[in-house]
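User: Fold both of these, please.

Assistant: Here is the first one.
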Amino acid sequence: MYIRFVNYLDKINQYRKSKLSNRNFLIILAVIVGILAGLAAAVLKSLTHHIEEFLQSDWHWKYKYYLYFIFPMIGIFLTVLYIKYFIRRSKFETGLTPLLYSISKKSSRVETHNIYSQIISAAITVGFGGSTGLEAPIVTSGSAIGSNLGRVLGLSYREITMLVACGAAAGIAGAFNSPVAGIVFAIEILLPEFTIPAFIPLLLSAATAAVVARLFYTQQLFFLVTEGWRVDALFYYVILAVLIGLFSIYFTKANYAVKGFFYKIKHPYSRVVIGGLMLGALVFLFPTLYGEGYITIKSLLRGDYLALINNSIFSEYNTFPALVILFTVVTIFMKSIATLVTLGAGGNGGTFAPSLIMGGLIGFIFAYVVNLTGIAQLNV
């Protein structure tokens, strides 16, 4: 059966070589990768948000709020079980580092199971409240689509790497509905030796994925409503950039510290319990840490500045500006810890979306404080 399949593919390759140049064939494959990665992005986002909506449905039970203490641990536990019993023959890895290693050391070979395992595990983790993002899983899934399609068709290492980058660009484009972001990501991270001819497959793949994902998942990430650009606020933007840069240093060091903490815990289920309880406590105290966190940024963009504190146990004190400031600052630092704990305990996801959330919260609280002092009036 396998030999017959290989022979059939060989005949297809021979036929297409006589009819199509490698460049044109690669463009066609880039579009196919874009379609599949766009579908994968739509499935991941839809599945995650359906889980979230089900768990956050309006149950008529006065103690429902306390379930958020255990939801994250359940999600991480289910993720670990899924990986253990359904991905038994291959190694499961999270983040983008394994992808970069596959390109540089494994001839751009990305394991086939990543096409679906990244989607399922990330949806379970984030849907149950894991404080990570969906971008890294969809990038890995899209890259796996490109890698396996290229290997099945017997393409060269350079061509497979191009399809891996197309899959990554398509994943980002499908997740954010932004082809430009996907292209820039692929060029910056995966294609350091970028050439102009590579731009066309990336563009087609990313644009196709954005359209396909939009067809099947219509919710918009952000509704940006703001006033015009103010030149006199440039000084404050520079200060904000410095603050976020300093915070990124803290986040990097915290990453190593949390990884070291969980590395010392040898048993995987012990990591699940310890990390799950830590994460559950954080989500219980700071509900905005639940899941990706984009809903909080949406509320802030709508002008609902009390959204951060309203659903917490401190909501009755939302009339005190000082408490709102303190709560937001603590939430920013706890978001970083919650993200790293989720990953350390065995959950799947990435740190890109949490970085956006933390950056957005820093920008909000900075403008909020400046406006309260009366020094200037900034667009929050």
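And the second sequence with its predicted structure:
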Amino acid sequence: MTQKQDIHGTDWDYLIILDACRYDYFRDNYEGFLEGDLKKVKSRGSATPEWLWNTFDGRRYNYNYISANPYINGQGLSLGDLVSGQDRDWSAADKFTNIVDSWIHDWDEEINTVRPEDFRKTAEENLDGSKTIIHFIQPHRPFISLGETDFDWAPKNKLEDEEESTLRKILDTTRPIWNPLFELTPYRFQTKVKEILGLGNNYEKLAREQGEEQVKQYYTEDLRLALEQVEKLVEQLEGKIIVTSDHGELLGEGGWGHSIGRKEKELVEVPWLEVKGAVDD
């Protein structure tokens, strides 16, 4: 069964999303924080936008969506507005009954993300009794455990109308011409080109400078930071709780990070944990 089938075919009350969380790393770390029945499911996307338009592709959903990720926003911008080269009119504001933009209220400019403890508090304050999706941004970069300060959140920049570079504007305009061929090249080549042009988030450069094992440790530490807050959140929730992810992350298996349209198991195999010990209604 795919994750999409589980989401729409399971009678859950709370769906907790850990952004960019791989199944194997979750499996190896969750037991210190949560109890439950864990299985591996296949995501319908290898990046958040792809997961959204493939998973929530039908009617309007009577869900309360509390989000630390700017792709899920109540500002009315579509994924086509936020994702370069994608002609998509999918908009969270059109799909979900209510959206809480934690990424606006809780954004920490010092570390350029939403701290998991701040997000948990916002989630607890915005429970309205309806089915609720609670979308943590960790273990997605920037790594809090590293203290990254220069990670570029492109969708947030666009939502805030920040000026794009001339080079990025040219590339975005001409993307339909060059992108089909570019996507056929090896992932490491794509990453290197983006690094040379000053685009992207230099994941591979970080791995070279810090060492691959150290980057994996940062990822693990940020996952555990999120799990610590999920544990506290679960104590406040009543009903059936699922913990899952939108997509995984490449950590040196042919590349680093994630992007739309990829099929590696590290990107599409995600956890599905039915939490035990949650208080019943």
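The chain has one domain: 3-275.
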